[in-house]
Write a sequence for this structure.
């Protein structure tokens, strides 16, 4: 054997034991005739003591060693590592392999940038910080499998080479050599397969599965990603929510030793959009948006307080479609420089606002605003009271087109929470968002598109709105008056710390309703048969009521690990351009391979 123990295993009770260790040199420190070496493997670090007569060959960082020696008590104990009370007095040392100087230091506070670390990812994976992430990912994986196994789910594999079907993003396509001119697609999700498994009677299915989407990337996206994909038969929405609340709470207990015992709050999509500005709100802190003025069609049940701010003399508010405020505790003390910085921030192209207004409620009760000349103190006080601002607070206000303003307010809310240290990565807050719109209006093509995917069922009480109405939009200017604009999906998202970690729906399981959904999306009978004939055919053979949910596994691991990015929780990730810089992929292939696939390429300069 190369080793009798690992580098993280030995303790004071092993003093006097002769051992054999193997691993990589983390660091070397020479003091006179004695050299101290930190030997590292996956399990930890052990200090070696090497006397001069054993140094027959030069040693360097990342050399692979095998040593034999005796465990002894360490004089200068290190409480920061598990083996810090002992060291190994080496009697025999063997260099198993040399190493050139690494391109960056292999330690937590490395000097390597992202691109360099991705190029040498096999070295980056040696770092303890990344190792902990990979171990956390494995722990989440095992906890998931254990919980689902205990609840009678079957892990069933589905194909990777499938037919290209519209699911929202672009497909990655794979040419078929044996079927000239035809292509497979890599699955964006196993959606139709898991529904077919429900038709087949496998009433509790799951997979921890790779999915593929050819879309623009950012820190929380990869072209290939992993889902915890689940489906259940003979269930309603509450059955799904209860089952997977249980899964997430189980993962928190197993992986973080957190007893997440509180009930998970459930809010509607409408409330999420108007209270927080987005459909995945971070509820670790309150700071809800104050809708001073908004289109009544967007939320007709809300109290309209626009009369408090509408004033012909102040066109910024009077002509705005939407005016939204955020009450910031203690913000009345902000300096002119601080408010100017916030104004510059909302005017950035990524946010898109023309400016930022504010009202300060001073501690003595007096009012100061950036638009004093248009409103008297009583009018400003009425606005502040409507916003529930307290003495010492500031109300930050953005105004403009509804969608742009709502998004800007949402981003501003998150920015202020960061400044106030309200987004603790070690604090976890779950939230269900339900009752999404079933359809979205595509103004460019004057048609409906599915907000989630075309297999999502409407709320049971609204099925008749689909069955008994024509989806054609005859008056694009007033599309919100169309019955389809008011149909809610029997869908739900699970949000953790402002990130969507899971989403799903109760599915359509009757052929006539599925055809009606395809009709609404502009698919004629021929296209329905070509793309989804297999599913419509299966529905003729007694499909059960069913629904499911898919978790973004990479993202779930990253949030539990306290990170904003999923990359460090994936062993071999791609960069923002979808490239594997370590393998240099994608890459050109030999012309003979293309000829076998009956493919020719014309690259335009």
């Amino acid at each position: 054997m190369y080793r009798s123990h690992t580098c993280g295993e030995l303790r004071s009770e092993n003093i006097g034991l002769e051992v054999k260790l193997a691993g990589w040199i983390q660091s070397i420190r020479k003091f006179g005739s004695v050299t101290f070496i930190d030997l590292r493997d996956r399990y930890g670090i052990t200090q070696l003591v090497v006397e001069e007569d054993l140094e027959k060959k030069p040693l360097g960082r990342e050399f692979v060693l095998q040593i034999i020696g005796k465990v002894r008590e360490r004089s200068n104990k290190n409480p920061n590592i598990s083996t810090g009370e002992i060291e190994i007095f080496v009697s025999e040392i063997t260099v198993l392999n040399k190493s050139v100087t690494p391109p960056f230091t292999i330690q937590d506070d490395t000097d390597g940038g992202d691109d360099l670390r991705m190029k040498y990812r096999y070295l980056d994976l040696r770092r303890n910080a990344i190792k902990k992430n990979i171990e956390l990912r494995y722990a989440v994986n095992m906890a998931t499998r254990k919980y689902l196994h205990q609840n009678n789910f079957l892990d069933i594999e589905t194909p990777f080479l499938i037919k290209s079907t519209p699911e929202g993003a672009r497909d990655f396509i794979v040419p078929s050599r044996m079927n000239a001119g035809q292509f497979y697609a890599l699955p964006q999700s196993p959606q139709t397969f898991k529904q077919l498994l429900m038709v087949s009677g496998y009433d509790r299915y799951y997979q921890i599965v790779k999915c593929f989407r050819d879309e623009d990337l950012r820190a929380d996206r990869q072209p290939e990603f992993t889902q915890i994909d689940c489906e259940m038969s003979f269930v309603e929405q509450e059955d799904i929510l209860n089952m997977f609340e249980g899964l997430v709470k189980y993962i928190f207990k197993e992986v973080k030793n957190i007893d997440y015992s509180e009930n998970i709050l459930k809010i509607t999509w409408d409330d999420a959009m108007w209270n927080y500005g987005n459909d995945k709100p971070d509820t670790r802190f309150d700071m809800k948006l104050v809708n001073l003025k908004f289109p009544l069609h967007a939320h007709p049940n809300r109290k309209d307080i626009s009369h408090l701010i509408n004033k012909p003399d102040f066109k910024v508010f009077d002509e705005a479609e939407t005016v939204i405020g955020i009450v910031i505790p203690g913000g009345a003390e902000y300096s002119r420089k601080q408010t100017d910085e916030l104004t510059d921030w909302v005017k950035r192209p990524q946010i898109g606002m023309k400016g930022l207004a504010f009202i300060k409620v001073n501690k003595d009760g007096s009012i100061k605003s950036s638009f004093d000349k248009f409103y008297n103190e009583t009018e400003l006080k009425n606005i502040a009271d409507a916003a529930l601002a307290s003495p010492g607070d500031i109300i930050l206000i953005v105004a403009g087109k509804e969608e742009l303003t709502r998004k800007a307010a949402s981003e501003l809310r998150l920015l202020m929470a960061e400044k106030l240290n309200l987004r603790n990565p070690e604090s976890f807050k779950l939230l269900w968002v339900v009752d999404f719109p079933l359809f979205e209006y595509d103004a460019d093509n004057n048609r409906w598109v599915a907000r989630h995917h075309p297999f999502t069922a409407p709320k049971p009480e609204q099925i008749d709105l689909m069955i008994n109405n024509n989806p054609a939009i005859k008056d694009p200017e007033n599309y919100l008056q169309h019955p389809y604009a008011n149909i809610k999906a029997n869908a739900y998202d699970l949000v953790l710390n402002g990130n969507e970690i899971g989403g799903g729906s109760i599915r359509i399981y009757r052929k006539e309703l599925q055809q009606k959904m395809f009709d609404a999306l502009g698919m004629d009978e021929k296209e329905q048969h070509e793309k989804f004939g297999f599913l419509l055919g299966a529905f003729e053979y007694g499909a059960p009521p069913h629904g499911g949910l898919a978790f973004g596994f990479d993202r779930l691991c990253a949030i539990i690990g306290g990170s904003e990015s999923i990359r460090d929780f994936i062993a071999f990730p791609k960069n923002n351009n979808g490239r594997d810089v370590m393998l240099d992929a994608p890459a050109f292939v030999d012309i003979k391979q293309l000829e076998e696939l009956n493919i020719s390429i014309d690259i335009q300069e």
